[in-house]
């Protein structure tokens, strides 16, 4: 009997030690992330797969409204630090969460693109609980713009296959998309593109051939250096799986069949020197939208990351004016 009691005690001590170690690691990670990306706090979102993922919050005192930042592919929530600090000074709180398959790993992987949309739905519901009554806007960059567009179309029941979302159309006051990845400008081997569906099913986690675009995301050398450091520290990914690439292509194809039915307030910022998103094709999609509150702005000299570009003060001013008219 005594032996059993001792054994149980040892198990209990081991469990307590494991919890303590996990808590200590989490606390240290929180401290490092808040310092590194100047966030006011870090929270967590319980995603649709039951996993808690990091949420960075840049809190404005007595905020005018909330911006939900949806980051791009291979990126991370901390990438919103530059616009978040600007809008915080203007009275806007920014919330950005780590997308599934992107949390501190070199190679990003997802099972289904729709998982991104389901997690964004949960983020919207969480934000509505944290800040009841305040206007909420979705700010999606690159792949985040693809996710945000799918989300908006799903809310309006304008996309197939339909998803069961908890959010309502009125939960979101409007959408801001920077270089939305609605069409691909990246050269893809035609043979590989044909095989992508088969490879996605057979070898989903295999590394996809991918160019290094980090040096042509922004003309701001300091932000490029930050991206490189984030890659070295595995905060920002540098590889993607075959399944990830295939799911993005499928999501773009689905969007192309539905985007003309978009009828929600939207402000789209496009880059004239974008090497990732096909700006001319995205413009054609925008021109096809049925909504009467659609604004498009093109910055001819910009690379992909409009919100991190050297002319970002001008970019932000346009966003601020658009927000002010809708909040």
What does this structure look like?
The protein is α/β, with parallel strands linked by helices and about 325 residues long. It folds into 2 domains: about 1-35; about 45-325, 3-Layer(aba) Sandwich (Rossmann fold). About 40% of the residues lie in helices and about 15% in strands. The protein contains 9 helices and 10 strands. The protein has helices spanning about 1-35, 80-90, 115-130, 145-155, 190-200, 220-230, 240-255, 280-290, 310-325; strands at about 40-45, 50-60, 65-70, 90-95, 105-110, 135-140, 175-180, 240, 265-270, 295-300. The strands form 2 sheets. The chain has an 8-stranded mixed sheet, sandwiched between helices. A two-stranded parallel ribbon has the order 5-8. Helix 4 links the parallel strand 6 and strand 7 (about 175-180). The longest helix has about 35 residues, at about 1-35. The protein is globular, with a radius of gyration of 21 Å. The termini are far apart. The model is unreliable at about 20-25 (pLDDT under 50).
Which secondary structure elements does this structure contain, and how are they paired or packed?
Blueprint (H helix, E strand, L loop, with lengths): L1 H36 L3 E6 L5 E7 L6 E6 L10 H9 L2 E6 L9 E2 L5 H17 L5 E6 L1 H13 L18 E5 L11 H13 L18 H12 L6 E2 L1 H15 L9 E6 L7 H10 L5 E6 L12 H13 L3
Parallel strand pairs: 3-4, 3-6, 5-8, 6-7, 7-9, 9-10
Antiparallel strand pairs: 1-2, 2-4
Helix pairs in contact: 3-4, 4-7, 5-7
Write a concise synopsis of the structure shown:
The chain is of the alpha/beta class. Helices cover 42% and strands 16% of the residues.
């Amino acid at each position: 009997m005594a032996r059993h009691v001792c054994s149980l005690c040892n198990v209990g001590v081991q469990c307590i030690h494991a919890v303590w170690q996990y808590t200590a690691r989490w606390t240290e990670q929180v401290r490092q992330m808040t310092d590194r990306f100047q966030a006011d706090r870090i929270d967590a979102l319980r995603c649709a797969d039951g996993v808690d993922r990091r949420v960075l919050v840049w809190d404005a005192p007595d905020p005018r409204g909330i911006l939900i930042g949806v980051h791009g592919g291979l990126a991370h929530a901390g990438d919103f630090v530059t616009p978040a600090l600007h809008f915080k000074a203007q009275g806007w709180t920014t919330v950005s969460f780590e997308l599934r398959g992107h949390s501190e790993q070199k190679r990003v992987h997802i099972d289904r693109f729709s998982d991104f949309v389901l997690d964004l739905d949960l983020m919207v519901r969480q934000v509505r609980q944290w800040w009841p009554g305040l206007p909420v806007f979705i700010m999606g960059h690159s792949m985040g713009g693809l996710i945000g567009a799918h989300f908006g179309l799903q809310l309006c029941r304008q996309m197939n296959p339909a998803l069961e979302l908890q959010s309502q159309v009125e939960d979101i006051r409007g959408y801001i998309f920077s270089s939305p990845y609605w069409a691909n400008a990246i050269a893809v081997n035609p043979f590989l593109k044909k095989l992508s569906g088969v490879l996605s099913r057979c070898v989903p986690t295999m590394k996809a051939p991918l160019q290094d675009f980090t040096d042509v995301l922004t003309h701001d050398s300091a932000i490029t250096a930050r991206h490189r450091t984030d890659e070295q520290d595995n905060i920002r990914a540098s590889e993607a799986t075959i399944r990830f690439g295939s799911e993005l292509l499928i999501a773009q194809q689905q969007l192309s069949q539905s985007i003309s039915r978009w009828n929600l307030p939207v402000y789209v910022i496009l880059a004239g020197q974008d090497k990732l998103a096909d700006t001319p094709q995205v413009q054609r999609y925008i021109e096809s939208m049925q909504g009467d509150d659609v604004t498009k702005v093109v910055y001819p000299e910009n690379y992909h990351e409009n919100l991190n570009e050297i002319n970002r003060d001008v970019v932000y001013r346009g966003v601020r004016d658009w927000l002010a008219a809708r909040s």
